[in-house]
Task: inverse folding
């Protein structure tokens, strides 16, 4: 359950289901995209990091100040998806960014990790990447509520994969005092 740094969205979802927290609502909402009925307010769904709205259908990246959906068509993009800068704000546990990459319906996305930079190099290569990392969430039906592939080491450079659907979510994070940059290339296949 969870990761080293916090519980995941699906951990909370599982606990709510196990203890039947949402069953107090007389009418169950038709939550979408992996969302679940809120036990605190029966008129809303609890959504993952990539969706918002009453039923979790509005694409939304809800981590600090990042709000980005990248739509790709017939082009290859080389992009630095995350730069933490010096990241010495010790008042925050970490710096987070999130976004989505979308291809046209019926197409898939090839993602290649081009560059991973962490200030202490391979010293940040802990199992599960608890301090810095770039995570790609990718599922057959486009459900972005699950965990994904996490990269944080220079040995991950050159790793490539093809998405299972036309939508990929990504989250990047860096703990205070741990500068981290991640650059990827993505294209339609």
Result:
């Amino acid at each position: 359950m969870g990761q080293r740094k916090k519980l995941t969205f699906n951990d909370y979802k599982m606990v709510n289901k196990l203890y039947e927290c949402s069953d107090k609502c007389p009418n169950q909402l038709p939550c979408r995209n992996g969302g679940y009925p809120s036990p605190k307010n029966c008129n809303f769904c609890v959504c993952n990091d990539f969706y918002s709205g009453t039923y979790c259908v509005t694409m939304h990246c809800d981590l600090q100040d990042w709000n980005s959906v990248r739509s790709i068509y017939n082009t290859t993009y080389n992009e630095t998806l995350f730069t933490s800068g010096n990241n010495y704000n010790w008042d925050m546990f970490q710096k987070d960014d999130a976004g989505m990459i979308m291809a046209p319906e019926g197409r898939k996305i090839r993602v290649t990790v081009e560059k991973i930079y962490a200030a202490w190099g391979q010293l940040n290569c802990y199992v599960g990447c608890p301090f810095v990392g770039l995570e790609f969430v990718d599922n057959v039906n486009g459900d972005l509520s699950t965990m994904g592939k996490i990269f944080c080491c220079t040995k991950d450079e050159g790793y490539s994969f093809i998405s299972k659907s036309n939508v990929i979510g990504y989250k990047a994070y860096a703990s205070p005092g741990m500068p981290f940059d991640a650059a990827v290339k993505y294209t339609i296949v």
The CA atoms of residues 26 and 42 lie 8 Å apart. The first strand starts at residue 36 and ends at 37. The chain has two domains: 9-59, 69-188.
